[in-house]
Amino acid sequence: MAGYHSPQIEVGIRLNTNESPEPLAGFTEQVAASLGTLALNRYPDREALALRRALGALHGVDAEQVYCANGSNEVLQAICLAYGGAGRSAAVFEPTYALHGHIARLTGTAVIEGERDGEFLVEEGELARVLTVGGRFGAAEPAIVFVCSPNNPTGRAEPRDMVERIVASAPGLVVVDEAYGQFARWSAAELLADNPHLVVVRTFSKTWSLAGLRLGYAVADPEVVDALLRVTLPYHLDSVKQLAGRIALEHLDEMHDRVARVVAERERVVHALRALGLRPFPSDANFVLFALPGRDAREVWRSLVRQSVLVRDVSGFPHLDGCLRVTIGTPEEDDTFLAALSAALS
Fold first, then answer.
1. Rounded distance, CA 7 to CA 121, Å?
2. Does this model's pTM top 0.85?
């Protein structure tokens, strides 16, 4: 199998991995000032209870309903280790976040691929097909259904009624990946109380401006959290990371302000892409997928790299021929990108 990676190229403007354009103000200084309180000669709190309590308070749940890991990708891995494996299957709806299927396959889980509709949303008929197709893979109906909302790389958030249909009809665990959840108008976390087989996954990498921290978490029923803890390596979450996560949660208002600024800047970029004759798709995230009618997307990507601007070439994803994806950066970074893109098109 090929490994999963995003190109890491030395460029002046990097808009390919959906990071926050702004750091968390004062955060590094706060963490540094608090490091002296840690006994680093001792193992960290294996259960990360203080961090889980803080996240539980954020979501209005008990600590027993929160599972923390090294980035949301490790959360996905724990889900596949606990609920997937040989003789079981996981469903995804393409195009979507590649690591859902990739991690499932790494754990020996068969992957059932459904297709999204022309608006890149899950469609009811396709949902019904996917939920009954597991037998073709020598596996039962899907033990896990992955729903990325807002979806990466397309940007669309699923309507509440569709997520409710998925949760109501899925035979196993439903995992709603909300890595970009703070940009959406609603959260599947609102459905957790009545659905013990629902898991909502979040990350500190995007809206919290902490991609370098590698911290993610899931909110779920206590029995699901217990299953995830069973497949987790001991002491997997170090003391510094647990401390930093708690400090980040003190910056909630700042996070929401930053989200609002990114949304405003995203709309400016969308208008500029249209003015260039391109087709940007609707986005509920901090990035924009856009099509380049009549153009070779790979060649445009190369031209941008030559101008020291890096975006994500997604033209090899299912149903995304001729498309690129750009992360929303600072206004200055976006102006540089738009100028380089105009030059590439001309």
1. 27
2. yes
d(CA 148, CA 49): 27
User: Does one domain contain both 304 and 213?
Assistant: no
Residues 222 and 273 in one domain: no
Q: What are phi and psi of 217, to 5 degrees?
A: -160, 165
Please identify, among 190, 217, 250, the residue that sits at the C-terminal boundary of a domain: 250
Residue among 248, 253, 256, 288 nearest 272 (CA) = 288
Cα separation of 205 and 217, whole Å? 11
The residues facing 95 across adjacent strands are none
Are 18 and 286 spatial neighbours (Cβ–Cβ below 8 Å)? Answer: yes
Query: Has residue 315 got a pLDDT over 60?
Result: yes
3-state secondary structure of 342: helix
What pLDDT does residue 272 have?
A: 98
Phi, psi of 200, deg, nearest 5 = -110, 125
Among candidate residues 45, 97, 55, the one with its CA nearest the CA of residue 76 = 97
In-domain check, residue 30: no
Residue 31 lies in a domain: no
Tokens matching residue 227:
């299953």
Q: Identify the pLDDT of residue 8.
A: 77
Of 21, 140, 142, the residue nearest 80 (C-alpha): 142
State the DSSP string of 126-154: HHHHHHT-GGGGTS-S-SEEEEESS-TTT
CA torsion through residues 236, 239, 240, 242, sign: positive
Cα 83 from Cα 75, distance rounded (Å): 12
pLDDT at 17 (0 to 100)? 96
Domain containing residue 299: 13-23+253-345
